[in-house]
Amino acid sequence: MVDNQDHNFPPLEGISAITDIHHQEAISLSSSSSSSSSFIENKCHGLWYTAILSIPALLFVLYLGFHLKKNIKKLTHRRSHVMIAYYILLWFSAVLNLAWCSLQVWQCMPGKEISWNLLSLLTALGTLCLEISLVAFLLQESYASGLEALAQTFIVSGLIVGADIILKAIFVFGFHVPLFVDGETTHRGKWGLWTVDELLLTCTYGYILCVHYSKWRDKLPPRPAFYNYVVVMFAVSGVALFGCGLAAVGVGFGLWPFSIIVICYHTLYLPFVYVTFLKDFFQEEDLLLDNAYYSEMKDAGFFDSDWE
Fold first, then answer.
1. φ, ψ for residue 84 (rounded to 5)?
2. Could you identify which of 64, 163, 231, 254 might form a hypothetical disulfide with 243, taking C-beta atoms 3.0 to 4.6 angstroms apart as the criterion?
3. Backbone torsions φ then ψ of 180, nearest 5 degrees
4. In whole angstroms, what is the distance from residue 236 CA to residue 257 CA?
5. Cα separation of 123 and 29, whole Å?
6. Distance from C-alpha of 98 to C-alpha of 266, rounded to nearest angstrom
């Protein structure tokens, strides 16, 4: 009996070992759940932030869709290669921007890091290509609607945007820099790259403003809307540079101006481009038609009573 009891003790040690394993697993699960919850708390903005970004982006896409048929008719009738290219690029950027604004929750999901970075890179590709191509178009001495000017514009902008996107992809996927994750507020590599990016844009817009006030002013388009665009973008890039520079040196206040610029850029930039560069083109034919109707009615004597 004693021997049998002695032989029955070891299984008790095995049971205690099993319970210890389950206890350790429970601790690890709780720690992982707490880390995932802290991950979500640090990187999620919430429903209101997503709504603030998504609603204006959705309204702009709906606006483009509402006028799509009429705008396509005008583009095919007038055959302006520059306007056709920018209209297609505007649609491409608007759809990607809507997806980026609506899928902010991907920052909070551990399995969506690659998808979020790819979506962010594509969105940056569309908007930056539109922005740089407009700058290249403004800096050309001849801003006609020919294929040669269009090809030259997109070759220059394509090289600049391609180099920028490749560099960002290397930082994100090669060096694992959280470039598009808002929760990472102390990463020096992230803010250093954004500072350089905004510095180049600020210097470019500042150069255009200097040309506007110099003897080479005739090389720029004579339309005031183009100058207003440059002034606004210089101010926007300057504020973003200020925020990125503060964040790069560890000043937390820099996150506020940078975040405000991000919201304004993703909600207002594409409508601003449409109003500045495309809206007059689509409305010009209607204005000419209204003027023709007015001239015909005036010749027919409809307005003679106004002079009596």
1. -65, -45
2. 254
3. -110, 15
4. 10
5. 36
6. 9
The C-alpha atoms of residue 145 and residue 242 are separated, in whole angstroms, by 37
> Cα dihedral sign for 24, 26, 32, 38?
negative
Within 8 A by CB and 6+ apart from 258, the residues are: 194, 240, 243, 244, 247
Q: How many CA atoms lie within 13 A of 131 on its CB side?
A: 27
CA 168 vs CA 18, 109, 191, 266: distances in Å: 48, 21, 12, 19
Interatomic CA distance for residues 97 and 122, integer angstroms: 9
**Is residue 261 within 8 Å of 215, Cβ to Cβ?**
no
pTM for the model: 0.78
Say which amino acid occupies 45. Answer: H
Cα–Cα dist 93/123, whole Å: 7
Determine which helix (DSSP H) or strand (DSSP E) holds 254, and give its type and residue range. Answer: none
Structure tokens given for 116: 């979020």
**Assigned token pair, 95:** 């759809």
Return the number of other C-beta atoms located less than 10 Å from residue 105's C-beta: 16
**What tokens does 186 get?**
């102390």
Cα angle: 279, vertex 92, 270; to 5 degrees: 45
Q: How many residues does the chain have?
A: 308
Q: How far is it, in rounded angstroms, from Cα 245 to Cα 266?
A: 21
The tens-digit pLDDT sequence of the chain (308 residues) is: 444 444 444 444 444 444 444 444 444 444 444 434 444 444 567 889 999 999 999 999 999 999 999 999 888 887 778 888 899 999 999 999 999 999 999 988 888 999 999 999 999 999 999 999 888 877 765 444 567 777 888 888 999 999 999 999 999 999 999 999 886 677 888 999 999 999 999 999 999 888 877 777 777 777 778 888 999 999 999 999 999 999 999 888 999 999 999 999 999 999 999 999 888 888 765 544 444 434 544 454 434 444 44
